[in-house]
Write a structure and sequence with these properties.
There is one protein chain. The chain is an alpha+beta fold. It has two domains: 9-71 and 215-247, Alpha-Beta Plaits (2-Layer Sandwich); 75-211, 2-Layer Sandwich (Pseudouridine synthase), CATH 3.30.2350.10. Helices cover 33% and strands 28% of the residues. The protein has seven helices and 13 strands. The chain has helices at 20-35, 67-71, 107-117, 139-143, 186-196, 222-231, 237-267; strands at residues 9-14, 42-45, 52-60, 75-83, 85-86, 98-99, 120-124, 133-134, 137-138, 154-166, 173-180, 201-211, 214-215.
Length: 268
C-alpha cells in the first residue's frame, strides 16, 4: 500500500523531451485526484534536461525533506558527444554555431586527456543555458534573450570517466561513461573536452544511469507509474495524517525521555 502523504520515492526513467517538472506535475495531479486533496508536496531530486533520459527521483509528502540528501548522491551518465562542432547550449537544443578540425584527434589522445584533465577535482563553468542564477535570474532565461551571461566556475569531482565507443578516424563521434558529483554539467564537460582536444564538441545524447544506489534498471516508465497510481491501494489522507501525528508524538516522547535521562546522569 502506498502512502504518498507520509512519503514515497519513485524512481522514474525520464523519457526524452519531457521536462523534469512535467514528470512531477503528472504524478502530483494523479495523486491529488486519488487522495481528493487540493495540495500535496511533490518534487524531484536533480533536474534532467529535456533532451536527457534516465534516472529521475520523485519524492512525495514528507519524503520531499530527503530531496537535498538524494541530490547529493554520486551520479553516473552515458554521454554521446560529437567532435568538431559547437552549439550555444552545448547540446542539440540549439543549432551548430561553429565548426572545427577534428581529423587530428585519436582515441589514444582522448583517453589521455580524460585521465589527465578530467579526473578528480576540476573547475567547471556551467552552461549559460542552465538554471544557475545570475543576478537572481536563471541563466537560461537571459541566454535565450541573446544576453551575455557570465557564470563563475564551480569545483566538482569526477570519480571516473572512460571511453565506451569512439567513431574515429571515420566519424567524429564519442561515447563516454562518467561517474561524478552533484552539480556536474555533462554538456559543459563535452564543451571542455572539445577544447582540450584542440577542437570543439557538443552533446548529442545523455542518459543518467545512476543516482546514489538507484540504477536505471530499477526505474519505471512514467506511464506505468501513472497507471499503477490509478490502481494501487493508497493510505487514505485522514489515516496518513493520523499516522504522522502519532509518529511525531512518539518522537517527542523519546526526546523527552532522553533529555530526562541526560539530566539525571548529570545530577548523579
Amino acid at each position: 500500500m502506498l502512502n504518498p502523504i507520509a512519503g514515497e520515492v519513485f524512481a522514474i526513467d525520464k523519457p526524452l523531451r519531457m521536462t523534469s517538472f512535467a514528470v512531477v506535475k503528472k504524478i502530483r495531479a494523479r495523486l491529488r485526484a486519488r487522495l481528493n486533496r487540493r495540495s500535496l508536496h511533490v518534487g524531484h531530486a536533480g533536474t534532467l534536461d529535456p533532451l536527457a533520459t534516465g534516472v529521475l527521483l520523485v519524492c512525495t509528502g514528507r519524503k520531499t525533506k530527503q530531496i537535498e540528501q538524494l541530490q547529493s548522491g554520486i551520479k553516473q551518465y552515458t554521454a554521446n558527444i560529437r567532435l568538431g562542432a559547437t552549439t550555444p547550449s552545448f547540446d542539440l537544443e540549439t543549432e551548430i554555431d561553429a565548426t572545427y578540425p577534428w581529423q587530428h584527434i585519436t582515441r589514444e589522445q582522448i583517453e589521455h586527456v580524460l585521465q589527465t584533465r578530467f579526473t578528480g577535482a576540476i573547475e567547471q563553468v556551467p552552461p549559460a543555458f542552465s538554471a544557475c542564477k545570475v543576478d537572481g535570474k536563471p541563466a537560461y532565461k537571459l541566454a535565450r534573450k541573446g544576453k551575455d551571461v557570465e557564470i563563475r566556475p564551480k569545483t566538482l569531482v569526477i570519480d571516473r570517466i572512460e571511453v565506451v565507443e569512439c567513431g574515429l578516424p571515420a566519424e567524429p563521434t564519442l561515447v563516454i561513461d562518467v561517474t561524478c558529483s552533484k552539480g556536474t554539467y555533462i554538456r559543459a564537460l563535452a564543451r571542455d573536452i572539445g577544447e582540450a582536444l584542440g577542437s570543439g564538441a557538443h552533446l548529442t545524447a545523455l542518459r543518467r544511469t545512476r543516482v546514489g544506489d538507484i540504477t536505471v534498471d530499477r526505474c519505471e516508465q512514467i506511464d506505468n507509474l501513472l497507471e499503477r497510481l490509478d490502481t494501487e491501494e493508497l493510505v487514505p489522507a485522514e489515516e496518513a495524517e493520523k499516522q504522522l501525528l502519532e509518529a511525531e508524538r512518539e518522537a517527542n516522547r523519546q526526546r523527552a525521555a532522553e533529555q530526562k535521562l541526560r539530566a539525571n546522569n548529570q545530577n548523579t
